[in-house]
Known about the structure:
The structure holds 2 protein chains of 2 kinds.
Chain A: E1 4-7, E2 10-13, E3 19-25, E4 33-38, E5 45-49, E6 53-54, E7 62-67, E8 70-75, E9 85-90, E10 97-98, E11 102-106
Parallel strand pairs in A: 2-11
Antiparallel strand pairs in A: 1-3, 3-8, 4-5, 4-9, 5-6, 7-8, 9-10, 9-11
Chain B: E1 3-7, E2 11-12, E3 18-25, E4 33-39, E5 46-52, E6 57-59, E7 67-72, E8 77-82, E9 91-101, E10 104-110, E11 114-118
Parallel strand pairs in B: 2-11
Antiparallel strand pairs in B: 1-3, 3-8, 4-5, 4-9, 5-6, 7-8, 9-10, 9-11
Amino acid sequence: DIQMTQSPSSLSASVGDRVTITCRASQDIKNSLAWHQQKPGKAPKLLVYTASTLENGVPSRFSGSGSGTDYTLTISSLQPEDFATYFCQQSYSTPITFGQGTRLEIK
Amino acid sequence: QVHLLESGPGLVKPSETLSLTCTVSGGSISTYYWSWIRQPPGKGLEWIGYVYHTGSTNYNPSLRSRVTVSVDTSMNQFSLKLSSVTAADTAVYYCARVVNTLSILYFDVWGRGTLVTVSS
């Protein structure tokens, strides 16, 4: 199985801050990476797929980048509605695996 | 806009079979893959498996011996059966639509999830 190591596991930030979350795969996953946002009691929401493609309707302050084994999700200017948990997901090979999640909290 | 809704018992006894259904509304179940994912309390997400609208499946090897995912196109639903459950199967179970872009799979629509507790 491909292991996805996500960091940090939690992060405190303020509205307006720039935030970066990282996922490292245990092998090259050739951009087969997606990022999702999860809020308590709500359905998770797809943000980015194929490492850097923004899903329709997702604000442009979100961006994804990376290649090989290392990928990042960046939020350029945090908004109040962005405080949530974020997780990555690889689909280069089955079983599909996820990062452990990053909980983004208000400082 | 496509919506997914999980349904099924919230409590299952050990050694019995967990059965959940995901109802797809706002779109057809045809032409996509459909998946189940779970998240035990305080833990990360685990992919369970997916089914294509034709009925073909792919399962997580860690659960393959106990899992069946099936699709009912006439009802616009797909289902999960997990047999011989233990307390370790207690989790929030999500259903999700799977998009296949140049063999890259990702989940573009998710249900809200349903908590299933395994306890006597």
